Amino acid sequence: MKDATALPQSLLVLGGTSEIALATARRLIARRTRTVWLAGRPSPALQNAAGSLRALGADVHTVAFDALDPESHEAVLGKVFADGPVDMVLLAFGILGDQAHDERDPVRAVRVAQTNYTGAVSAGLVAGRALQSQGHGSLVVLSSTAAERARRADFIYGSSKAGLDVFAQGLGDALHGTGVHVMVVRPGTVRTGHPAAGRRTPLASTPEAVATAIELGLRRRSETVWVPGALRPLMTALRHAPRAVYRWLTA
């Protein structure tokens, strides 16, 4: 499917203040999307994000959603799906954490894992089941190249993304043939407004570049998208590098 009908008319964003998610929403609104739900913790940032999308002509709603409260996910997301069909769910919430501090504070490390993995398992299952019940739709999951292999610099974050990545692949297999399309997106370093994301890194991208790749992946019904595409062969090589060599390369 490469025509415009592969793009959603309605979009639910889990992680409504994510810069990648908002860049994706802007791009999809410019193409076909007319209704957007931004789900996240109530905050001025969430309201500002909704206002910026309304200015583009979309009908935008905010939804109180907490990744760390999985018991609420079914009720919260159920209300969105009860309002009408949702063509696409973008699972975009997550935290980088602070590796140096988190190593010394297991409670903080666990919060990274609970947000990026446990919360995503809950929300992903609820969203996947709702999409299956309506018989169509795409679930787009923001993973990371950090999921491919542990690095000393960010192994807590990377391990949480590795769990998310495997979960999303398995969910895609479970939903295959149901009319639901699951797409895993693996960006490298993305230059956003977050201080930790400002480092100059080879093959770094921007939220807009990730949004462009997501649109192309939707049109092609891709199951995995790398951003930029050159990361795919690079990460394949690094994944199979001897551990001592990989440790030296990523030190």
Write a brief structural summary.
The chain has 251 residues and is of the alpha/beta class.
Q: Which properties best describe this structure?
A:
single chain, 251 residues, alpha/beta, Rossmann fold, seven-stranded parallel β-sheet, 9 helices, globular, Sc_DH/Rdtase_CS, oxidoreductase, Decaprenylphospho-beta-D-erythro-pentofuranosid-2-ulose 2-reductase
Your description of this structure?
By secondary structure, this protein is α/β, with parallel strands linked by helices. It has nine helices and seven strands, in the order E-H-E-H-E-H-E-H-H-E-H-E-H-E-H-H. It has a seven-stranded parallel β-sheet, sandwiched between helices. Helix 3 packs parallel to helix 5. The N and C termini lie far apart (42 Å). About 2% of the residues have low confidence. Keywords: Oxidoreductase. It holds the Pfam family adh_short. Belongs to the short-chain dehydrogenases/reductases (SDR) family. This is Decaprenylphospho-beta-D-erythro-pentofuranosid-2-ulose 2-reductase.
Present the secondary structure layout.
Blueprint: E1 10-14, H1 19-31, E2 35-40, H2 44-54, E3 59-64, H3 73-82, E4 88-91, H4 99-104, H5 106-134, E5 137-142, H6 155-175, E6 180-187, H7 207-220, E7 224-227, H8 231-239, H9 243-249
Parallel strand pairs: 1-2, 1-4, 2-3, 4-5, 5-6, 6-7
Helix pairs in contact: 1-7, 3-5, 5-6
Top-tier CATH class: Alpha Beta
CATH topology: Rossmann fold
Record the strand order, biggest sheet. Answer: 3-2-1-4-5-6-7
Order of helices and strands: EHEHEHEHHEHEHEHH
Report the mean per-residue pLDDT as an integer.
91
Outline the biggest β-sheet: 7 strands, parallel
Cα-atom Rg, whole angstroms? 17 Å
E-strand count: 7
Helicity range: 40-55%
Low-confidence stretches are: 195-199
Number of helices: 9
Give me the CATH architecture, please: 3-Layer(aba) Sandwich
CATH homolog superfamily: NAD(P)-binding Rossmann-like Domain
Q: N- to C-terminal separation?
A: 42 Å
Family: Belongs to the short-chain dehydrogenases/reductases (SDR) family.
Keywords: Oxidoreductase
Protein name: Decaprenylphospho-beta-D-erythro-pentofuranosid-2-ulose 2-reductase
InterPro entries: NAD(P)-bd_dom_sf (IPR036291), Sc_DH/Rdtase_CS (IPR020904), SDR_fam (IPR002347)
